[in-house]
Amino acid sequence: MCMKLRISRKTIVGMMLFSLLWSGEVLGNERIPVPLIGVGDGIYAVCVDKSLQRLYVYNGRKQVEEIPCSTGMNPGDKQVQGDRRTPEGVYFFERIIEGQSLPETYGWRAYTLNYPNSVDRSLGKNGNGIWIHGRKLPLEDRDTKGCVSLTNGDLKVLDAYLYPYHTPVITLESMTTIDEQSLDAMESRYRGFINDWIDAWQNKDFEKYEACYSPRFYDFLLGQSRDGFLARKRAIFSRYEHISILSQGLVIVGTDSYVLCYFLMDYSGDSFQSAGVKYVYLENGSEGPRIIAEEFTPLSKAQKWQAMAEDLERRQNEEVRGFLDAWRSSWEGKDLDVMKGLYLPSFPEREEYFSAKAKNLAPYQSVRIVLDGMDIRRSGVYWTITANQRFASESYEDFGKKTLRLVSTSRGFRVIQEQWEKIDEDS
């Protein structure tokens, strides 16, 4: 079972005593809600405090709205259909239902939430129809069947901050605060875990990858326990020669019983590629964070992430061009040790290739490489660059079509294939 994440009156003695970050309290000038572990500026988060019947909106870690709300008639965390409790956890709104399509009691509109999420289902919770919605009647505390209800005017205020599959809605019995330094320590630990997990995944280090998963992990999409899930992943590791995982925009939020890390993920295995939002649910055990569930949402459903996906694509193209600049500069500088490092060790006859290149370059005092008409195309982890290449020295010059095939690795791009075809400029 995962450890309950509670704050008491003890003192946090340091970052390495991570468990105390949830069971202790550090005196500080500014108190920040514990759920906002890694929420950066420009990212909105909604926190519902059931004990106070208040909904708070944050931009990063700064509060921007406080709104009265009403939650479920009965106290406690939702367990089953019809118990009239508001679930406690992290949720995202999926779609809007306008008021004209609803009974009058729901007011202006409703935002459907993704309850039950994967962690809820792993705990045997059920039910559905948990929404944030408006109302016809005046606001009263604890008068819903499990939804979070606001006045119609306040719901219109909240609308500006809600983005599907992007804005976390964190519902808690009561919200606890902590000092910023301690929260930064939590963020660093979880961010490090996610980075290590991604590195193990794309480097196909199965032992390290396997160690990231809790015994209670369950894949609800395929109905697989931890052993079945990992057996499938081992087979995928064997199937793909290369795996590349690019990530951006990591957000980290927490509840009393788990932490959720989610981010834009661009995954490639050889020529296969997909992009979307990855949600990773973590428990805190005696050996540190472990994954208990995962979810994935394609970009087609998460439009707020589209601009970040386009930025990631631009960044990748810039990295390819940066790689080509380094490749060309090492050639022009006749620094073949550096240039050889830009080629994958499995590049065909790499040692012989560079021995021949060293011999060919030896007579020249200076070398100039010009690439124009460049075309860059991607297929999964592979990038193919074609360009017109002019090689010039003080005594020799040639012109031809250069084709480089690169692979994206955890250490950057590397050349796996190279071709050159002479172009007769007189023809």
Which features would summarize this protein structure in a list?
427 residues; four-stranded mixed β-sheet; disordered N terminus; 9 helices; 21 strands; alpha+beta; five-stranded mixed β-sheet; single chain
List the helices and strands and how they pair.
Elements: H1 19-23, E1 31-33, E2 44-49, E3 54-59, E4 62-68, E5 89-91, E6 93-98, E7 109-113, H2 118-122, E8 131-133, E9 148-149, H3 152-159, E10 169-172, E11 177-179, H4 180-202, H5 206-211, E12 218-219, E13 224-225, H6 226-239, E14 243-254, E15 259-269, E16 272-285, E17 288-298, H7 306-332, H8 336-341, H9 350-361, E18 367-379, E19 382-393, E20 397-409, E21 412-422
Parallel strand pairs: 2-10, 8-9
Antiparallel strand pairs: 1-11, 2-3, 3-4, 5-10, 6-7, 7-8, 12-13, 14-15, 15-16, 16-17, 18-19, 19-20, 20-21
Describe this structure in words.
- With 427 residues, this protein is of the alpha+beta class.
- It is built from 9 helices and 21 strands.
- It has helices spanning 19-23, 118-122, 152-159, 180-202, 206-211, 226-239, 306-332, 336-341, 350-361, and strands spanning 31-33, 44-49, 54-59, 62-68, 89-91, 93-98, 109-113, 131-133, 148-149, 169-172, 177-179, 218-219, 224-225, 243-254, 259-269, 272-285, 288-298, 367-379, 382-393, 397-409, 412-422.
- The strands form 6 sheets. It has a 5-stranded mixed beta sheet, with no helix packed on it. A 4-stranded mixed beta sheet has the order 6-7-8-9, with no helix packed on it. It has a 4-stranded antiparallel beta sheet with strand order 14-15-16-17, with helices on both faces.
- Strand 12 and strand 13 (224-225) form a beta hairpin.
- The chain is elongated and about 90 Å long.
- The termini are far apart.
